[in-house]
Amino acid sequence: MKIRGIYIAVFVACFAACFFLGLWGNQPVIAQDPPASVCRLVLPDNIPDDVESIFQTGRDYLAAGQFERAIDSYGVVLARLEHYEQHTLFKSQVVLALAYALYAVGRADEAVPRLQHTIETLRAPGDVSLELGIATQNLGQIQEDLGSFTAAANSYGQANQIFERLDCPQHQLSSLNATATVQTWLGQYEAANETLYSTLKISQRVGDNETVGKIYHTLGWVAFLQKRYESALDFYHIALEHGQRFSGDAVILSRTLNNIGHLYTQLGDPATAIATLDQGLELVAATPTGIAERIDLLDSLGDAYAIAEDGDSAWVRYHQALRLAGQSDHRYRQLISGLNIAETLAAAKQTTVAIAVYKQAINEIEQVRA
Which residue in 171, 213, 241, 353 is a FRET match for 32, CA 20 to 30 A apart? Predict the structure, then answer.
């Protein structure tokens, strides 16, 4: 079977791709304008004007991706607040932004202890705050990214309990979805399904139909890993229907179509797979943000054509994927496409060329790892 990528969940657009809960796009939601809400972070009153000004400058740097400058700004803010005991919540908000900036530049060893210290500071018997929930969630995200899935699941679970007590369902959706993801990485498929159905109930209760579709996509992924391919197809088709009805996001829809096409390939129905994948490719053909999805769809088409014993078409699709990955600097996808080409060459008895491509891919992998 060819090497390729399955989209684990279309939540990545709003959850997993953001290292920290509380970030929408590049703008950190560290503070919002009034009216205040228990589920939205707001700047406390009576912050010294010079401190607030530096904090806002840090936010601007963070939004612009100038992380080192943001780190400097937040460091100044924390230094000036050192002797202000009454600004505990504001300090925690500064740490949330600082930890995000630190992690963004690869300084997780500094971000983690800051978050842990903030969690300990905010944790009090019988008392919870949104800052505590977000700090705990953010810690879980770093733990997940570093591969500490058991610790991440524990952090996400604690965050969910806090958000539940605060009655913040949107934040709960984030923590529960993240929990389901790490449970799946740990092979705890039944637990992941149970978590996803809890997430589904919350989404339906608050009328978040777009998220309902994303949850069905994730249920499809878990079913795929359990090799329950027919169930996975059912979930993906429900996800597709919800996406078409409530979202219409071409990139998200193409991810679901990619997974459906791959499943049809697994089930030995390449004709349906090709038709489905072509549909996904058409959706993102002119979408600048859908380059990664186009690469994956082309690779999946290569798989489908290979199963259909149409070697020429498979070769064309793999080469298109490889070229697009190279042009857009998607190195991991470039490696996947290269390995698929090598396997195709080996199947065609072009052993010498296949070995050369394999060696090139191995060298690329070593460079990426370095």
Answer: 213
